[in-house]
Amino acid sequence: MLMTKWGEALDRERPLQEYPRPQLKRDSYLNLNGVWSYAITTVNAEPEDYDGEIVVPFAPESELSGVGRVLQPGEYLWYRREFELPEGFNVGRVLLHFGAADQVARVWVNGQDACVHTGGYLPFAADITDLLCEGENCLVVRVTDETDRGYHTRGKQKLKPGGIWYSPVSGIWQTVWCESVPDNYIDSLFITPHLEDGAVEISCGGEGIVHAVIDGDTYDFEAGTPALLKLREVKPWTPEKPYLYNIELSLGDDRVESYFALRSVSVGEDRNGIKRLMLNGKPYFQNGVLDQGWWPDGLYTAPSDEALAFDIVAAKAMGFNMLRKHVKVEPARWYYHCDRLGMLVWQDMPNGGGKYSATVVSAPLLTGANSADNKYAKFARREEAGREEFREELLDMVSHLYNSPSVVAWVIFNEGWGQFDSDRCAEAVLDIDSTRIIDRTSGWHDQGSGELRSLHVYFDEYKYKPDKHGRCVVLSEFGGYALPIEGHTADVKPFGYKKFTSQDKYRRALTLLYDGQIRPGCMQGLAAAVYTQLTDVEGELNGLITYDRRVIKLAPGDVKKIIAMPAVK
User: Fold this and answer.
1) Which domain holds residue 194?
2) 497, 445 contact by CB (below 8 A)
3) 0.90 cut: is pTM over it?
């Protein structure tokens, strides 16, 4: 079993203690991570006796959970723990938060219903004030997970993993915590930068006057109404200079800390009239790497906050300025690290739907033909409820990550996996966020619409061609070169698009790839490129870093030289 150094040092009683929501931070904080009781049953009734202990927030399938068992469709995963609120903790209302639980979670406090949530990637919360008692309280959570046997979003999880598909992840996999708020509090916060005006638009939920302090300057505005605040100093955010403005917000007795950045992203023309991705009004080549966010010991859950930041720091040291977060939504702290370190993010929506037909989703690779995505049966999207659930989760994801300046693009569908009505989905996203780029169909089954032509090229030589619809051209996946490192590979069948046996051959191949295909493409009009991938994942060995994060396969300085791009103007 591969382990990271952070997993080996894990404190089972107090894992992942950092405040989980940096953009809406309060002093009130009770972390509930640690050792809970768990049971897996085949009947829908809480067991009298639990099976043993589980370390929350690690999925039972993971090594760090202490369980090591796959939750099957039709089974019920039960969690139980007791907790007491510290003296003076409750100042009005007590909120119970879950960072994420996969897939369907029901929560009870002291035997009373608290909430039900469907969807494995987004946070949810319940006001449990009226369910609490003096002294010790009992928290019970029940989770069911169909993994790939239903239409719920699942990313790259599979009950029978292999190749590009990975192990199942079930149950609680992000931090569980409580906070207390007054009756009237800031219950939502949306921050929109207006770089061209040197201003920021703030919208706070609640009632009354909000008092804001931004880098020492004070402002007052009405809660519930967007307020455009002129800034004294304009400091644009870029990966090279990721300046963050600090903001403190007060509403009555409620006080929160947050941050924001000034930056703009768009599609525009360079001086030669070629469509480019623009950052702060100027052409900016987005030199990216695919990042799947899997861990050998924690699966979906990084073993520590330091580990969570490690991948971003390593990618930046290699010269990448963008990460494509692939069909997974990370904890809020991951985006905070991207914001503060200076790393652009393309955020994928996790895919769902029924059982995919390899012939259908891969047809464009062989024929070049893209199917209309209103053919629901063809794309394993027969269930109207599943399509509606996906749309709701998509919009919830956009709202959840709206304030993060590092997120510059939404990727709705990848390679036809569960694809449907991509244009309608994009329009729904635009209704709530018109400040970012949208990649409607990454890879294939392109509908000829939107601002981007998004290509995946693995088996052929890439040669830049202008898009026939006049769109900006991006290479959103390529490469996939595999180099196994002895002693640092998972004990499963290895996979890679192109395999190498020595570091020298691997280095030469990467150099030829960028010299012969990517740099020429950039000079001709290619606007972004996403190399596959940052780390190995299970049997997939095409990472620049091993799965256990102990070996970086090429020196970061060497990678930086290999991937360096000419300036675009």
Assistant:
1) 189-252
2) no
3) yes
